[in-house]
């Protein structure tokens, strides 16, 4: 019998695990795959959650933030025009191999019972719960489902939006001479591709690494090479790229309204809702919602409130602080789908009023005191640089595909 079981070892699950373990809760964290592995992700981490990330990481892993490449601007290439917006406070670029590994190790270091290669098949009961897994059954007073946007535990909810369009996510790392500290978004009919510099914290990895990550309709492109040819400026830019990883893909990508709890189980990260990747806020939402879910459950573990009240508190706080991000990103996605003849003057309008892109970016961020690196106490301490060895990295097909 555990107090708390968390399904999924990504940013949402590890954030919930560390937050509750630090408060003295007996936590079981179950991950069906191997951590770390490459995941389909643009690897852009917005400033709003960097302070939270700093507090979640153990002291050995805090240098991850200091060593990360800072992203100071966004360039959007759309309909032959370019919109430049400073990213302020600066965001960072962190490879998922490094981020997921650091969070997982930090969870273990603070005493979370973290187990890889354990698949949760289903969960029965309404509190306490019975967790049926590939490694036997467990009992738990509370459960957070942080199993991502498309797992055996979330697929039925995702399908309910009835969308006929099939979208893919595709990612690869390449070498590019002297990449700028910019996140560049190339939009074309039926998708877009983000490009930004990224580094890997391990010996022998190349300098000048970039991440190219696309969200594209399945009938427009099915490989990263096809994506790179979908936009003239991207095509030109990628001529001299050298692949540093095997491309990986994931499907389907479905959007639905957020569902913060279900049958007494709290949902965190993509399991609660998947935000359109172009806003670059999915990891932040995962970290924040995981921590919030744990915080709402702590009074329940102390027997101060019921599980229903904890779930209600989480639903409320999710609506207050995070739900508007989905509304804003849905609105922008709808605008991008408008016919080109309407879109072009809109883009011109956005370009001529520099405060407008900044406002739109702000609307796609969770309501939180801006938890940037600069505002986060002590993030700058421990200047140790250098690399860690023996991370057991494997290039793997993203788990959402299997
Ligand atoms: C194309 C694309 C680009 C993106 N770009 C960005 C970006 O630049 N910036 C950003 O912030 N976000 C981006 N995102 C979104 C971001 O990747 C997600 O929001 C983030 O990974 C969510 O974290 P999570 O912990 O909720 O889920 P995940 O990271 O998916 O973790 C869920 C974990 O649960 C495990 N799991 C699943 N089922 C089970 C089970 N039954 N039992 C046990 N374990 C299970 C999985 O193996 C997985 O490791 C992008 C997404 C896509 C698709």
What does the model show?
The protein is of the alpha/beta class and 402 residues long. It has a single domain, classed as 3-Layer(bba) Sandwich (FAD/NAD(P)-binding domain), CATH 3.50.50. The chain contains twelve helices and 17 strands. It is globular, with a radius of gyration of 20 Å. It starts with a strand and ends in a 39-residue tail after the last helix. The model is unreliable at 369-402 (pLDDT under 50). Residues 7-13, 30-33, 39-45, 119-120, 146-148, 151-153, 169, 213, 215, 250, 253, 269-271, 277, 280-284, 286, 399 line the site of flavin-adenine dinucleotide (FAD).
In terms of topology, how is this protein built?
Blueprint: E1 2-7, H1 11-22, E2 27-30, E3 44-45, H2 50-56, H3 63-67, E4 69-78, E5 81-93, H4 96-109, E6 113-115, E7 120-125, E8 129-133, E9 136-145, H5 155-159, E10 167-175, E11 182-188, E12 191-197, E13 209-217, H6 224-228, H7 232-237, E14 242-243, E15 248-250, E16 261-262, E17 265-267, H8 282-301, H9 307-321, H10 323-336, H11 340-352, H12 355-363
Parallel strand pairs: 1-2, 1-9, 2-6, 4-11, 9-17
Antiparallel strand pairs: 3-5, 4-5, 7-8, 8-9, 10-13, 10-14, 10-15, 11-12, 12-13, 16-17
Bound molecules: flavin-adenine dinucleotide.
Flavin-adenine dinucleotide (FAD) binds next to helix 1, strand 3, strand 13 and helix 8.
Summarize the structure.
This protein has 402 residues and is of the alpha/beta class. 31% of the residues lie in helices and 25% in strands. It starts with a strand and ends in a 39-residue tail after the last helix.
């Amino acid at each position: 019998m555990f107090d708390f079981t968390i399904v999924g070892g990504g940013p949402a699950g590890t954030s919930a695990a560390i937050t509750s373990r630090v408060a003295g809760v007996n936590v079981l964290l179950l991950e069906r795959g191997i951590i770390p592995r490459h995941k389909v992700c643009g690897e852009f981490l917005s400033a709003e959650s960097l302070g939270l990330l700093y507090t979640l990481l153990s002291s050995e892993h805090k240098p991850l933030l200091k060593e990360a490449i800072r992203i100071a601007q966004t360039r959007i290439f759309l309909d032959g025009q370019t919109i430049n917006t400073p990213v302020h406070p600066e965001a960072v670029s962190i490879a998922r191999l490094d981020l997921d590994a650091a969070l997982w190790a930090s969870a273990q270091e603070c005493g979370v019972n973290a187990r890889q290669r354990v698949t949760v098949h289903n969960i029965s009961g309404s509190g306490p719960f019975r967790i049926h897994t590939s490694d036997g059954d467990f009992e738990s007073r509370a459960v957070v489902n942080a199993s991502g946007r498309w797992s055996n535990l979330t697929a039925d909810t995702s399908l309910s939006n009835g969308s006929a369009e099939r979208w893919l996510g595709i990612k690869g790392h390449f070498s590019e001479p002297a990449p700028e500290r910019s996140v560049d978004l190339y939009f074309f009919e039926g998708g877009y591709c983000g490009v930004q510099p990224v580094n890997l914290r391990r010996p022998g990895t190349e300098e000048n690494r970039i991440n190219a990550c696309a969200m594209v309709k399945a009938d427009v492109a099915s490989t990263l090479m096809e994506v790179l040819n979908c936009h003239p400026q991207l095509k030109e830019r990628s001529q001299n790229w050298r692949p540093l990883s095997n491309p990986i893909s994931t499907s389907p990508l479905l959007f639905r309204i957020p569902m913060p709890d279900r049958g007494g189980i709290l949902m965190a990260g993509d399991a609660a809702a998947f935000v359109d990747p172009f806003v670059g806020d999915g990891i932040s939402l995962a970290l924040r919602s995981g921590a919030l879910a744990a915080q709402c459950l702590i009074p329940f573990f102390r027997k101060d409130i019921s599980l229903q009240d904890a779930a209600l508190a989480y639903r409320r706080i999710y609506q207050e602080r995070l739900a508007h991000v989905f509304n804003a990103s849905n609105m922008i996605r709808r605008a991008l789908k408008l016919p080109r003849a309407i879109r072009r003057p809109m883009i011109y309008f956005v370009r001529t009023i520099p405060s407008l892109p900044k406002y739109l970016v702000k609307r796609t961020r969770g309501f939180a005191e801006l938890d940037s690196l600069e505002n986060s106490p002590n993030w700058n301490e421990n200047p140790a640089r250098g690399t860690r060895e023996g991370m057991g990295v494997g290039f793997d097909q993203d788990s959402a595909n299997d």
